[in-house]
Structures
1.
Amino acid sequence: MIAEYDRHLAATPAGEGRYDVEVPAGWAVGGGINGGFLLSLMVNALRDALPAMPDPLATSAHFLSASVPGPAQVVVGVRREGGSVATADVELVQGGVTRIAATVTCGDLDRFAARGSASDRSLAEPLALPPIEECFASADAPDEVKAFVAMLGRFDLRLDPAHAGWGGGTPGGTGVVQSWWRLDDGREPDVVSLLTAVDVLPPVTFDLGLPGWAPTIELTAYVRARPAPGWLRIRHATKQLAGGLFEEDCEVWDSADRLVAQSRQLALVPRPMPS
Amino acid sequence: MIAEYDRHLAATPAGEGRYDVEVPAGWAVGGGINGGFLLSLMVNALRDALPAMPDPLATSAHFLSASVPGPAQVVVGVRREGGSVATADVELVQGGVTRIAATVTCGDLDRFAARGSASDRSLAEPLALPPIEECFASADAPDEVKAFVAMLGRFDLRLDPAHAGWGGGTPGGTGVVQSWWRLDDGREPDVVSLLTAVDVLPPVTFDLGLPGWAPTIELTAYVRARPAPGWLRIRHATKQLAGGLFEEDCEVWDSADRLVAQSRQLALVPRPMPS
């Protein structure tokens, strides 16, 4: 059986670096589409274009216009090949309009691991979360939330209650949201799904009493290792809201306690609801 | 008097989004040129092309080949204009070869500040450094270091001794480097020089006993506010070295205790010296 996630990622080569894809309504959040999933969709097509460089080491993306469910094209333009990395421009286009303009530097993490192990070290503690069964399950979200956030039907999210007071109307003000996460159908994490993982939690602004859609302006993600099977642990945190903009840092840890992905995004603070 | 830094940033419009610039030998680090300065050079030209959007909110850059001192062109391609932000591809080219491929989303921070103040808040403590006179001054670096790192003649750097043990051969292993910093000639910081600031300290690998040049693969910087006059405080930190790659996070604080810039870069761990 092909997992739903992989069906959603499907890309059909259309020649000259172009791939036909379908933006699935199943990854909608309100009127928009989850940006992390769209990056996975783009990078999955890029891997077809650059098979010797399967790992998206650094993906930087500027969000130019709002994607909608339906047909789209991923357009890959390789900028440099050879040596230990390759760099490509990768765009998501709908009806002639660029939705996302990304640049991706990719490589082969196995080759990097083989040469780099002497200097390997971690200066961070693995993300500590309460046991999964003590966390708030996305499956238990109210029906109206599930209807608005269609992507909640694509995965299992288990939020740390210490940063989820907003769910009961009492945001903690910590500027942190953290969670266990795994895809449906037992689909194990890989370097492609890590790009979904870095943008899949509710924005940290929820815990600051500012609910609502927080449109991403720019997101850069680094994939640091191929993730081990099992649950991922994800942490979002912010340091500053200024001028209606905030940054959101993300760490993703795998079941082997490795820091497998890092990202930062600049986003717009949700506007207050009209009262 | 025009400050040396501004003379080094000079860009001459050459039509169709092209600007003639000169990569100054004065910003060399060994055989390379400081990447942050090159981003300032690129963004300074971009500001001429998009005068209504003077602030580089998000700059993401992939470093494709090594820049050398001498003539270069900055090539600006505007991707989207209108609304509160604009996005442009900005490249640094020498002899027909792209050195740096960047995408910049810019806007006007005054307009953002005017609409966003209700939600403004900081969740981070301003960077605390020892008094300037207790820090290690770049002016006191050994002559052979100054000869190798030409850019040390462009500014005044005052390293926190708590993370500068490597200077005396005893790296602290903290994965942190932090410093006061200001440009020569009393040239005050602005949004352009912040892009220099995020890459101007020695790499955090120095404090991990891994001295040497750490080539940047990708760097993304967010400018969060226009800096107040005076010294900047800069902190670099890393969480992980894996497969010969490390990430370096940067915060820049201004004299008014505001977090004015953030960046993260993915770089290659310096290779051990042959023994």
Note: The helical segments of chain B are 4-9, 35-49, 109-116, 143-148, 191-197.
2.
Amino acid sequence: MVTSHDVARLAGVSQATVSRALRDDPKVALDTKERVRSAAITLGYSPNPIGRALAVGRSTRVGLVVTDLENQFYSYVISPMHRELEKHGYELLLITESSEQAPVADLVAGAGLCGVVLATTTLDSVLPVRLADRGIPFVYFNRTTPNVPADSVTVDPAPGLEKLVDDLVRLGHTRVGAVFGPVNTSTGEEREQALRHILDDQGLTLARKHVRRGPFEFGTGRDAMQELLDLDDPPTVVICGNDVVALGALNTAVERGVRVPEEVSIVGFDDLPTSAWPLVRLTTVAYDLEAMSRQAARLLVERVESGESVEAGGVHTARFDTSYVPRATLGRVEG
Amino acid sequence: MVTSHDVARLAGVSQATVSRALRDDPKVALDTKERVRSAAITLGYSPNPIGRALAVGRSTRVGLVVTDLENQFYSYVISPMHRELEKHGYELLLITESSEQAPVADLVAGAGLCGVVLATTTLDSVLPVRLADRGIPFVYFNRTTPNVPADSVTVDPAPGLEKLVDDLVRLGHTRVGAVFGPVNTSTGEEREQALRHILDDQGLTLARKHVRRGPFEFGTGRDAMQELLDLDDPPTVVICGNDVVALGALNTAVERGVRVPEEVSIVGFDDLPTSAWPLVRLTTVAYDLEAMSRQAARLLVERVESGESVEAGGVHTARFDTSYVPRATLGRVEG
């Protein structure tokens, strides 16, 4: 982004003089003012980039911030979100937040975005605070953080998990294991609490030794499954925080020659296209990810176009229902 | 992007007056000039946004343009490219070119990008022409187009395909089938020509009825495999344009209960992480996609920082070698 430093350099004056000249301070000489203004125009500098976008009402660029693009989950979010935004005359820019050092908030402001969808925000992320400070509208996607209120699109894991646990009981599972998501995400925390609560209602317990935890990644499921299968009394079913984790677990079982579901059952959450492959047939919990992605786009567009602040009008929340998708990786306990 | 129309509207003058005022045309009244300049500064308008970025030398935003983000291939490109750019002090913005109507070239200019990596350009795309016209540096990634010269990072399919065809001969395959990529991409065309040439050298032919063609997508392999398996004399091996297509073909075989490789062999190209899953074990052709992604980032950074035009100094090309990765989906012809 062009800064007042750049203008100062080009005009050959101090940064303070740039500020004074652009406020039309009478103490600045006329030819200095002229030089500063001409430099500002050459560089396309505006003292207030957000004000600029709002004043013109012309920025139609929406940013989607994600951390882990290697996670195939996001590739199914981007296309519907992109199409929905396009329908409303907006474009989508993807911003990857690969490191804590990356000044993503500056990047968002610098790229002249009219709004942002946050898809991988951790509970301790500073990005929501920074965006709120700068007055950039944003929507939480599949995540929330408690401290900064904003519109959100989330999933209610309970209905799908309830049907799943009914099936666990019916199939005779008593040694239940789980690979939960990270504790610093609302999604990980919420799915874990819902599952624990529902298992409890059905009189099933999660033994501590049968629980693993980690990022929503393939490697988390792979490593957790190695450890669980090495136990003297491995769980009869492993419920994973999402499908990508479950795919990691499933591949470990296949690699070790452990039959699924005869020797161990595996369950996911998300119902990604890969999970429905004839080669995979993962039992999982589903929701309408495409509709959710479109809804996030619509909430953001409404927020941008109304110009209404969260403080003034409150937040809009959309919560999506879940369903249980029985396939081939959950079966009856043998022996 | 802020345009001279916006400035005209805010200043309450015509667009022509904006142009004249900013050139300091003596025919424009002093107070009108003042009003136009003030509006330009408020809006951050510059008569020449490219000149602005070059003059300041401060834009460090690189765009990656891809069409089909649901294709998992790209998710493995983005992370290494992002990390390499970050090392050089640049950020990555992802731009999805979802429709022909999308004014991607305008978006690229409007977002103030210093350069672009083109990853899904078709041979007839206008984007390279538009970028060249605007003087925005770009690099072709895994693609080229013949008309607009630029730096490129591509793959040489021949070494890997030669070893693959050696193995086809050794394993007794004579009815060879193929699912090629789209004819309007250099990648599709080049892989097809290389394979045809190498098969020919080994005395193998591709019967027309055993050849299918389509976009580099899962559905292409799925549908092609249905048709090929319905033939009276299906091919004994199906060579696919990439791994995603091969995964579609493999899942169709599994769904139909056709044993791979006992009844039909399937081969891919790319060696995506999914292809190495114990559940998949796809025989394929590999190259160093991560190194390629990093190299594209480096070529672009060099081009941006040197400021050297393609016309003045010629193009830089990096070509990556391929190798053959035998796994479980290619076997001996039975019977």
Note: The longest helix of chain B spans residues 289-306.
3.
Amino acid sequence: PYMKKHNFFAGPAILPAPVLEQAAAAVSDFEGMGLSILEISHRSPQFVAVLNEAEALVRELLGVSDDFAVLFLTGGASSQFFVSAMNLLNEDQTAGYIDTGAWSAKAIKEAKNFGGVNVLASSKDGNYNYIPENIEIPSGLQYVHLTANNTIFGTQFAEFPETDAPLVADMSSEIFSRRLPMEKFGLIYAGAQKNMGPAGVTLAIVRKDLLGKVKRTLPTMLDYRTHIAKQSSFNTPPVFPIYVSMLTMRWVKAQGGVEAMEKHNADKAQLLYDEIDRNPKFRGTVANKASRSLMNVTFEPVDEADAQPFLDACEAAGCVGVKGHRSVGGFRASIYNSMPKSSVQALVDVMKSF
Amino acid sequence: PYMKKHNFFAGPAILPAPVLEQAAAAVSDFEGMGLSILEISHRSPQFVAVLNEAEALVRELLGVSDDFAVLFLTGGASSQFFVSAMNLLNEDQTAGYIDTGAWSAKAIKEAKNFGGVNVLASSKDGNYNYIPENIEIPSGLQYVHLTANNTIFGTQFAEFPETDAPLVADMSSEIFSRRLPMEKFGLIYAGAQKNMGPAGVTLAIVRKDLLGKVKRTLPTMLDYRTHIAKQSSFNTPPVFPIYVSMLTMRWVKAQGGVEAMEKHNADKAQLLYDEIDRNPKFRGTVANKASRSLMNVTFEPVDEADAQPFLDACEAAGCVGVKGHRSVGGFRASIYNSMPKSSVQALVDVMKSF
Ligand SMILES: Cc1ncc(COP(=O)(O)O)c(C=O)c1O
Ligand SMILES: Cc1ncc(COP(=O)(O)O)c(C=O)c1O
Ligand SMILES: [Mg+2]
Ligand SMILES: [Mg+2]
Ligand SMILES: [Mg+2]
Ligand SMILES: [Mg+2]
């Protein structure tokens, strides 16, 4: 009924069209209950089924074993910056952090209130335009934190570093985009609003044996164990954001799971990076190909005078959200799981005829 | 298109029918943007306008001056139990708490981790079936915390206690249901999912001059000042829950504001309490009329054998959510702002013909 745009926003971001259709229907009437999904009890069997399915889908899509808890929380990835350290790091212990930009820097800042922080590597010297390689990681760290995909700078860890400490990873802008070596992780967290669902829910996948070891008193709501014991319903969870995330995971599964997403995402990213490299009017902002993100493609005009005209051309072609983050400038095309190749092609067409 | 139920759930709870209609439409296409409201940036002018209107409506509906900040947070009222004390109470200070049941008890428990707690009064001796009166409040308290309306026990403060300390009030199950003496309050908080919107957003109205006085280091996301400085957009706010809350507030305003709600709610509550009192098969569970909630009407069968048959009769008449909370038993009819009198009448009709 409306002219659908090509949505390149970094987050909240594009969701699959069939998910949006089902979500709209559930707001009118949820599963024939005669009630909207917005007005049903979180303890109703219908919503408990949604929550159970959401957890099962996370486990299935990423191969998450029972050693881990799967939690649907709130507060965004920004809250996990401190909640992760609060739950996992004592005053007299040290965690390693890899600094690949704004999000890592915030995680580092918050962790320092809870214990020792050892910044193992940083790409600050290049305005975060690369992922540090061959990082020397000392032993004895409580965990090693990294931003798997940096949404702002368009960088992504192609491989995860080798370390004897569990990895704690902010996967906000790449969750479900590729297969993961789960055995390396102690905690994965992600704000939903990029690759998983709408804003308002935060996924946490945490290895249970790491919990209950800090000496401080945790507020009940900040202790992962509270939410584990009550299956994310200690208090009222964000019902609708969880429902739409579940629908999105169902959609990922129907497409062939994260393995299929991985191929689909590599394919879309190549289409766009190839054009950036080929086209003399544009260049990528990331220093090397190995550091390039498959989720957030950052580039810039060779001639600064082309910046606004190109954004105008994008808008005219129905491509929205292409403007780069203010701290980098230039352009950013976020091409998450739900982005069809045809939308990437639409953007490439604008570049070709620009 | 569907058989609408009479929704007596305690929360998440009934929302106005026109709000649900607009919400469903926005999930398909938001304001002709060619995008769903679930996939637009929280920094887009369209959503910034929603956030501004939501704040303005809170201010207008409750008469909130510039001395207060109006914040849209996450984590539910359960997070405010500790966040309020963390922001307002030093280790060497004492706050007063009035204990009117489960929710107060949780607030008390969480506050004890941050400073002194003086329980000024409790109705525990009567399984919380009344609101303590003529409470003696010493001076020198940092604030006095109360649960304005107790959702579980069906009790409500008809008047707020006199004290020289600012009141901190959990208004989760009564926000926007009546006019408030704002000059008495230092902080009001409410999970949205009863009287304000869907689950996933938490309202906080805080007097700005009370902030910045505690000595502890606050995690950035837990400092009210962070969210004041960034107008509830320091990180990604729960876009859709805020949007639907804004629509609900617009609806309250269109009905004549909280003054009209107050009359409407008193009228509905009287209809139901009159039938409870008149009908020999039912009795109220609250000890005195002054303590009765206008939001959550708790009652029980005189003959315990009537319990299940009455719930069945309710279901048959399309009245859902009438079962009492497990800690009280019996029945509970939650009749929030959005509940039409015709739905209360439908329940009364079931009682009359039972
Ligand atoms: C990698 C990354 N981490 C953290 C955040 C912050 O997430 P939130 O807004 O959910 O707190 C974002 C997005 O905004 C992000 O892209
Ligand atoms: C009075 C009151 N306070 C607090 C809560 C807990 O709220 P939330 O689930 O938003 O944490 C509730 C409802 O469940 C409530 O009724
Ligand atoms: Mg980073
Ligand atoms: Mg080029
Ligand atoms: Mg209480
Ligand atoms: Mg009676």
Note: The mean pLDDT of chain A is 97.
4.
Amino acid sequence: MFSPALEALVDALRCLPGVGPKSAQRMALHLLERDREGAQVLALALGEAAERVGRCQRCRNLTEAPVCAICEDPRREAAVLCVVETPADVLAIEQAGGYRGRYFVLMGHLSPIDGIGPEDIGLDRLQTLVQEQGVEEVILATNPTAEGEATAWYLTDLLAADGVRMSRIAHGVPLGGELEYVDGNTLMHAFSGRLPVSR
Amino acid sequence: MFSPALEALVDALRCLPGVGPKSAQRMALHLLERDREGAQVLALALGEAAERVGRCQRCRNLTEAPVCAICEDPRREAAVLCVVETPADVLAIEQAGGYRGRYFVLMGHLSPIDGIGPEDIGLDRLQTLVQEQGVEEVILATNPTAEGEATAWYLTDLLAADGVRMSRIAHGVPLGGELEYVDGNTLMHAFSGRLPVSR
């Protein structure tokens, strides 16, 4: 229906998550009718990133340097390591502020059904890191899903022998959330994880 | 927070319509974690399209050829010309099927407030086309918005002198729509545009 170059662009845009045929068409026409410069800039940025961005040698986060900025930062505590599933999790924690330790990014979670084992999420490297770089506390911040929980349990077993302090981030009612609208699982989790208070 | 190449990609993705900072981040991470090939293909397609796609000399639709496929097609009736605002409108009509004439794409509508006058939407070329290429009917399919209507009225005046048959596509209750949920303007339009029936 469109010309071949336009068709190719609409097809290529569909590799973006959440972009179906209609949005892809809208995006392609928008770029060509109103923002050719943006299209060129995006083409360059995509090429650059796809070619140059790799993983941090230490924490496996995405970066084009050999070691990422957080691992390089001398002000971050090397003794505290937070294990997360994805780079987006690192970003969410950094944006919340307050955490001053370092990260280890699994780039996934254990999932035997999909053939994802310990090596695929870098657990061998994590163990070496914990043993050799003076890590004193490992904070497990994998997602509270079945796979995330399983990964957290696996890690607890794996690192227990190294004498490192292990903790799991708290799960419960979100701040500003209303009990009425919180799902039952979360609510039960909040009850079983209750903390003593006193005055 | 991210590495510079990743930041640049997230920023560049925001030139896409409907993509805010969160979606841009999700798209960038998706491409880098899971679809580098897609990213490369998209980079190429964007560069190609931004560089090569221009406008059809005859109908102003987007194409990388001098004249677009619809204008080149000898099976399309040259005597009927449908005037639309954007290439997306051409696509919508083509997908509906049934229309066998050709198009003229304004690439916008008259909008004195934004400084968009007759020349900016190619009305001089449209008039030449109508006068010189044996057009017998012009179907006005601009949007039923204030600017679209104004453009349609302007066109009616402009082409009246050329002795060409002019028509406006019908506006009313959409098929499958329920009267109950149709807005008042559309309903009034449907009443005033009622057609005689008989058996």
Note: The two ends of chain A are 72 Å apart (CA to CA).
